[in-house]
Fold these 3 entries.
Entry 1:
Amino acid sequence: LKWTSDKGWHDGLVGPRRPFQIDPAAAVLHYGQEIFEGMKAYQTQNGGVVLFRPEANAKRFGRSAERLAMPVLPTELFIEAIEELVRLDHEWIPTSEGASLYLRPFLFATEAFLGVRPSREFTFCVLASPVGPYFSGGQKPITVWVSKDYIRAASGGTGAAKCGGNYAAGLLAQAQAYDHGCDQVVFLDAVERRWIEELGGMNVFFVTKDGKLMTPPLSGTILEGITRDSILKLAAEQGLTVQETPYSYEQWKLDAASGVLTEAFACGTAAVIVPIGVVRDAAGEFTIGNGAAGPVTETLYHRLVNIQRGVEADTHEWLHKIEIL
Ligand code: PMP
């Protein structure tokens, strides 16, 4: 689907994947004017095909577009494009637990113009691919690397937008995490390098002994995760005390050592919920609880997966059914 300043959205088509033609002067290649989303289509246990909260993805895509000076694709068009693709590819949606059809909508600047100003031409595209669990160990606890060298986003920047540039800026920190035997990087805030923000591609939660669930607040520098929002709602229903509150890396260490903090987990569309077992930085490491998945993490994971697969009642109306014609 294309967008130009004179015609608006036009020339949509769905078909087999094939390479694009792109001008070497296209603005995206020089100034990174690009945004994307990550979402999944699931097979429910009764054979239906559903999306999980696609309106939330469409709205976040719109907010990212505004921040990156791009045109906003109306929610109905965004969902219609996804639906058409899923209908065409529905035979590729895996049925096993943890597997799904991953969907990657993205919008990028195609105008051939080297001046630094917003492009006047864009292409919107959605890729689909069957996926299994995000981490090879399934729901096995991950080890995370706390980056002291690099930050992901600063106040006034693009941290709350899902734009390619954020990920480009985080790649070196992610590579360091891998070099230190870790699965993911944890970013701290840009000002004090003290407050925990989020992981390279996931939000983060902490569970205390007395049943409190904490997550960093939406300060404008972290992504407003749809999984994060769903967990906040499910946890409150379960009777947990839910707090969106700043939490420092120093306090995390102290609370893990004293046993006040019993669990920590990361969450996002790709991995759903994954326990954090070990936290490592340049000075050393510590273990959360006994290093295994805790009961709160397990319960929230199963509730979320069961809602997505139509096993548990969808009381929040999060599932968007796709009629396969
Ligand atoms: N933070 C970052 C940086 C991410 O890339 C993602 C994945 N989209 C998330 C958080 C989790 O967001 P969601 O639950 O909407 O997938």
Note: The longest strand covers residues 121-131.
Entry 2:
Amino acid sequence: SHGVMKMTVIGCGYLGATHAACMAELGHDVLGVDVDATKIESLGAGTVPFFEPNLDDVLKRNIAAGRLRFTTDFAEAAQFGRVHFLGVGTPQQPTSGAADLTALRTAVRALVGQLRGEHLIVGKSTVPVGTSAELADEIAALARHASVELAWNPEFLREGFAVDDTLRPDRIVVGTDPGRPDSRAADKLAEVYRAILDEPTPYLTMDWATAELVKVSANAFLATKISFINAISEICEVAGGDVTALADAIGHDARIGRRFLNAGLGFGGGCLPKDIRAFAARAEELGVGSALSFLRQVDEVNMRRRTAAVAMVERACDGSVLGRNVAVLGAAFKPESDDVRDSPALAVAAQLALRGARVAVFDPKAMGNAARGFPTLRYAESAPAAARNADVVIVATEWAEFVHMSPDELSGIVARRLIVDARRCLDGDSWTAAGWDYRALGSTVDGPAPAAVEVVAAAQNSESLV
Ligand code: UDX
């Protein structure tokens, strides 16, 4: 029917699988492509290989409707359609922190040589500024029998809201070749997104470099906002202030805004930590490292929260966790996700285990990924099971089921009624009223000082989902 286009989505990890399913949901004919045959088989059978609310439904519905298929064959992709989205991962390089563009280059090479006629390649991955220009040169050299244009269209979706964020984005950003003012790429993409743009959605066109920078700047800003409030919480800890009341109060200023001002264990996940490091590394390559040197501090403030959580637990345990039973509630880097990449919760759990605690972890969705990344921790089958005989319970990810947990339910199970709220998500008064020693990260700490705690290193990751 009218407006239906044929397109491929190359790279079917978190971003690509969501994008492919959502483009089919808009009515398009979509072919998902990935080099990972297991992933492709699973997606083709209608099973999302990770947890994301609603994605399963969208995937199944569109496969059933015949609008969505998956393949590992790039020749098929080259023939299938004239618009090709790139959603492959751009992970962090181990030493420099810079982005690793290997998967992106490999995907471009696998596709472009096989193209015939006119095509539009649309990058969605988060990349260092300058990548589009570089890839375009590579594409021009590879496209012997085709005329291929490149646009950069960054994705802002949040895990846990991926489908909604894709179908109802705050804005759509499209970067095109500044050397081609006559480019039709932005119009072509507006056609792809027609159904979204029918609902008023800002459609912002700009040059490649700006579009690339929009994405990393947005994430750098969000990370800075979180570290800002966490830095203030360090002050509150020694001065006796209440960082939550403070965030509420400053958040009423519309210029500041209350969202992303939740103090606690800080940010983790597959994007924010890696993106600020890659952005800082790129600034250095460009000779303006000092412009983003504050991002190193944003990173440091964030990592110090993990250290502070470990220290708070040690203080609460009279200086040492050696031999203590510690229940860690939460393993995912945030609620509504099974992603444990750079998870603050698991970094704390691992550090406590290193310091001799007997740690039991429970998470509603992330147990499998957590156990693969941290096989030596003990995993319990429920929050109460993790809390059985615990000397201290830590809430490390603010899943609703932990937030709404009744203190009385755990009171008879634990060895000692001591709870550390590392996400400041519990109603402390109700825990105190039920006879618990309630402590929150970001509030005054007392008790004997623990032995020096080393900075908890960036957690090792489970298999990458991107
Ligand atoms: C982020 C961006 O929000 C998204 O736009 C981008 O496309 C990808 O990166 P995501 O990684 O899914 O999305 O998670 P997000 O909801 O941003 O949370 C990131 C981390 O910050 C989580 O660990 C979360 O617990 C933490 N966080 C968030 C806080 O500590 N405090 C807050 O107030 C908000």
Note: The chain has 19 helices and 14 strands.
Entry 3:
Amino acid sequence: MIKQYQEELSLAVRAAREAGGLIRDKIYRHQVTETKSCLSDLVTEVDRQAETCIVRLIQQHFPSHAVVGEEQQGNCAGEPGGAMTWYVDPLDGTTNFVFGLPFCAVSIALAHHGTPVLGVVHDPLRDETFTAVRDGGARLNDSPINTDHSIATLDRSLLVTGYPGNIANRPRMHLVNYRQLIDRCNNLRALGSAALELAYVASGRLTGFWEVSLRPWDVAAGMVLVEEAGGTVSDLAGRRLQLTESVDIAATNGLIHEELLECLEWPEYNEIK
Ligand code: IPD
Ligand code: CA
Ligand code: CA
Ligand code: CA
């Protein structure tokens, strides 16, 4: 039994459940929304309250750690990328939340020198908490989880993706990729919460996921979940995923990873391949 990061894990689970309580209480009510970078980039009071609750708990218990939260808009506490940095998405799936579509989550990760070592994705509407600590396996509530290793080809895979809010730079490539994958996979979903979609890949409910232009707090927790559940996570060129400002990610059960990457057309990556 790996004992490392157990205190951090307990705190992250507690924080995710407290924030999840706010989401659960408010999801079917009218939401006062504001927009951020564009009309489809929504934020509500619940996003902010949930983040305040999580960040306060982290800072109380781990005052020397840096915290990067989505709604802080870059005003991080401490020095991100340092020894210990938390990545907090207080409500992943804000659009679903605003429309009363019950698919959203709280996502909390801890990174050590830029490598995520702990991930918690909590679905408050199903009371499902996905957790993983580096080298300690992944769990859903109290049970170990694994990616689905019974599927080895795209034509048997249930894939999931997302529609990034701002595709102004590369709209054609999005259409090419959706088109290619729809023709090649068993079926394709877009469920609206990257963190929960990654948790579903980790638990074998989905076979693979790709999305571009995500942010570190969308993927950091899910990355640990998928890797600890026996899957593979990379950028679209197959390289180790870095928690940079903008993240392009592929995450699968491992067995379909190469085939998925081959279907994704990204000129900037194809040059590298
Ligand atoms: C969004 C969700 C969605 C993804 C978007 C993200 P938010 O996060 O993860 O699935 O497609 O690109 O921004 O804003 O709801 O936390
Ligand atoms: Ca958002
Ligand atoms: Ca998010
Ligand atoms: Ca969010």
Note: DSSP finds eight helices and 14 strands in the chain.
